[in-house]
Amino acid sequence: MNLTPLTLSASEALEKLKLGNENYLTAKANPADISPDIRLKTYTEGQNPYAVIITCADSRVIPDHIFCAGIGDLFVIRVAGNIVGDIELGSIEYAVSHLKTPLILVMGHTHCGAINAALQKADEGYAKFVTDEIALAIGDEHNDEPASKLNTLHTADKIRKALYDKYSNVTVVSAIYRTDSGKVDFI
Fold it and tell me: Which terminal residue of the chain, N or C, has fewer Cβ atoms less than 10 Å from its own Cβ?
């Protein structure tokens, strides 16, 4: 696979995300490149994402649109409650080590069902794995938005602790996506 070297720094990648979100706030369609040409280019040359996005599996949270990104721009990992375990950390490490992605964004969101389930301590079965991790992150917090922020910061910290020794050049940031307005508030 012949990957073009990444030319963006973590700070430039973050600015690109911020600009993409600003564009999204008034967009009616995603203006990013999803053309047959870019599909063929990424097929033959490989992917070269400028950011890893760890976010919730909620159907209202679509990072490629939220940041007006096209094919090959973002390496997206979606899991309920934007939590990470070994498999998600492995995916992040793949993007950082093999694809040389300089920025990791953990993005929570408002009105998160997984956060609310953890606040209500209502889940059983496999969903309890998700809500138990969130409960660990939010502690005694009882309000939705502060809990979402705490959970997002916890996940970012977990990523830093897991990967920092080996990948200290990677930047990890956090944000909250507002499902009502579409705005991303970087923390």
Answer: N
- Its pTM surpasses 0.85: yes
Distances (CA, A) of 66 to 63, 87, 132: 5, 25, 28
What is the rounded CA–CA span in Å between residue 67 and residue 120? 31
CA distance 39 to 37: 5
DSSP 8-state assignment for residue 80 = G
Name the DSSP letter for residue 32: S
pLDDT digits (tens, 9 = 90+) for 94-122: 999 999 999 999 999 999 999 999 999 87
Instruction: Give the separation between CA 15 and CA 58, rounded to whole angstroms.
Output: 25
Rg (Cα) of the chain, in Å, rounded? 16
Q: What burial class does residue 74 get, using C-beta atoms within 10 Å of its C-beta: 0-12 exposed, 13-18 middle, 19+ buried?
A: buried
